[in-house]
Design a protein that fits this description.
GO terms for molecular function: structural molecule activity. The protein has 279 residues and is mainly alpha-helical. The chain is built from seven helices and four strands; from the N terminus they run H-H-H-E-E-E-E-H-H-H-H. The protein folds into two domains: 65 residues; 176 residues, Up-down Bundle (f41 fragment of flagellin, N-terminal domain). It is 68% helix and 4% strand. Strand 1 and strand 2 form a beta hairpin.
Length: 279
């Protein structure tokens, strides 16, 4: 191939190829700097991008699971608040029952204590029925008056695995029985050793169970947060750009681009030197 040709400028072709490679590398670097990602889409690195999308999906799943468990924590906190008030009221009920078990009370005194017992029992019933959150309750197994009861299965991780909270029917298992008016000391004494003991034990069991549920959900939420931090860290290592490195590379490529442009300009001027041969 003739070196002195106006049809084929080898120098310009080489300079152009070099400049194109520099421009391509510069475009990649500028994209990394503008997005902050080494792998911003599948065109950058298909395999890495696919893994990154999977990790992002896991993080989204964990975020949703924590949001759902946060709502269930509200139900549990309301339930525990109601049960705590019931437990405190049961202490007052016991005190009244002890007085009613005294056979020396006059009819008037007994009537007053029976009325006090009924009032305290109503308080217990109200505490239990009011322990609702967003229309849900763990202290009933049925649905009534706009309140939905029954077991609650909440998701706990990104795979949708559930954790079940078992509801109790408080109206029958946690509420003390009524006392027959004028039942006398023996009825109160019987309630103290029978119904009261049974219901107090059930209340304590519910407090322990729901307290354990609450602790579990708090631990699971905390674990999910730590897991998301780990996933974020791994995701960053996989797709984030090293901006310090890219900045240095940008400076280098910009200089190469300028030099390549000058080299191409010089190469394009070479054929003009052939004109001097014809003067």
């Amino acid at each position: 191939m003739a070196l002195n040709s106006v049809n084929t400028n080898i120098g310009a072709q080489v300079a152009l190829q070099s400049l194109n490679r520099t421009n391509d590398a510069l475009a990649v670097t500028q994209k990394r700097i503008s997005t902050g990602f080494r792998v911003a889409d599948a065109k950058d690195d298909g395999a890495a991008f696919a893994v990154a999308q999977s990790v992002r999906a896991d993080i989204a799943g964990l975020t949703s699971a924590n949001e759902q468990m946060g709502g269930v924590k509200g139900i549990l906190d309301t339930t525990l608040a109601g049960l705590t008030k019931v437990s405190e009221t049961m202490g007052n009920i016991r005190g009244v029952l002890v007085k009613l078990a005294d056979g020396t009370l006059s009819d008037s005194q007994r009537s007053q204590y029976e009325a006090q017992y009924s009032s305290l029992r109503d308080q217990v019933t109200n505490f239990l029925s009011d322990a609702t959150y967003n229309g849900r309750s763990l202290l009933t197994t049925g649905t009534a008056s706009g309140v939905t009861g029954g077991d609650i299965a909440t998701v706990r991780n990104e795979n949708g695995t559930t954790y079940t909270l078992t509801a109790v029917e408080a109206s029958s298992s946690l509420t003390v029985a009524t006392l027959t008016a004028g039942g006398g000391a023996s009825a109160a004494a019987s309630a103290l050793t029978g119904d009261f003991v049974t219901k107090m034990a059930a209340i304590n069991t519910s407090l322990n169970t729901f307290g354990g549920n609450s602790n579990y959900l708090e631990a699971q939420i905390s674990y999910n947060k730590e897991k998301m931090v780990s996933l974020d860290t791994g995701l960053g290592a996989l797709v984030d750009a090293d901006l310090a490195k890219e900045s240095a590379k940008l400076q280098s490529l910009q200089i190469k681009q300028q030099l390549g442009t000058q080299a191409l300009s010089i190469a394009n001027q070479a054929p003009q030197s052939l004109l001097s041969l014809f003067r």
